[in-house]
Design a protein that fits this description.
The protein has 253 residues and is α/β, with parallel strands linked by helices. 38% of the residues lie in helices and 19% in strands. It has an 8-stranded mixed sheet, sandwiched between helices.
């Protein structure tokens, strides 16, 4: 994969965002949104970017509080501004169509961004939660410990370099399923594995059920969670869907 063009973006609330751009055909750019404690520079995200780059340009970003970005993570709230900055960077580089593909937390942010900010031509959420505060699995109970406890925030900062805002949400942001109906008429794809250890399939069904057409739901057999479990075949199918969906979306503008 070619070396990405380094980007330094600024959000509307003045947070510095580290990003990278893989140039592609002028038509379509994928904004790649990672999961909690991940980074666009990690091998799993770079592999995904490499597959997407066969179909268009790619802008990968580190959410606030992650990787080389500034600020602190709000775990799905103000991260919509980070995606908005990345979408703007893609538009400035001349791409006619921009699609957001998000994984886990990034999928939730992709849904919320498309619903609250708009300005995109297709949205894909992979392994995303439909609602907040889900503690029904052991991995998610660990995530809540990392977010809500001072010792947990210290541990995740030392282990993963992720800096989490200590104050929590005030007010609580709209959950993905509460705003998913606002994405239409932009095409929306929900992808979820039946072997996801973090969020069971009910989250995918809740998101899909709350959305309006055009929408699709892919339940992937034996697929686990988010970036690490995503195969090149799955990413290729997502890229093909996005290419067609974004073209139709742009045609109807």
């Amino acid at each position: 994969m070619p070396t990405p063009e380094p980007l330094t973006l600024r959000t509307a609330d003045r947070v510095r965002i580290d990003a990278g751009h893989l140039p592609g055909p002028d038509g379509l750019c994928f904004v790649l949104a990672h999961g909690f404690t991940c980074s666009w520079r990690q091998p799993a995200l770079r592999r995904i970017a490499g597959v997407l780059n066969r179909f268009g340009g790619v802008v990968g970003l580190d959410f606030r509080g992650h990787g080389a970005s500034g600020g602190r993570s709000t775990v799905g709230d103000r991260e919509v501004l980070d995606i908005e900055a990345a979408v703007g960077a893609a538009r400035r580089r001349g791409y006619e169509r921009v699609a957001v593909t998000g994984f886990s937390m990034g999928g939730a942010v992709a849904v919320r961004h498309a619903a609250l900010h708009g300005g995109v031509d297709a949205v894909v959420s992979v392994s995303a939660p439909a609602r907040w505060y889900y503690r029904g699995t052991v991995p998610m109970r660990r995530v809540h410990w990392a977010i809500e406890r001072r010792s947990g925030r210290l541990a995740v900062r030392l282990a993963r370099g992720t800096r989490i805002a200590p104050a929590g949400w005030d007010p609580v942001p709209e959950a993905p399923h509460e705003v998913a109906g606002r994405i239409a008429p932009v095409p929306f794809l929900v992808v979820h594995g039946d072997a996801d250890a973090f969020f069971p399939l009910e989250h995918a069904h809740q998101l899909y059920g709350a959305a309006r057409d055009p929408r699709e739901l892919w339940v992937e057999p034996s697929f686990g969670h988010a970036e690490v479990a995503a195969t090149p075949d799955l990413i290729t199918r997502i890229a093909r869907w996005t290419t067609e969906a974004a073209a139709v979306s742009a045609h109807h503008e």
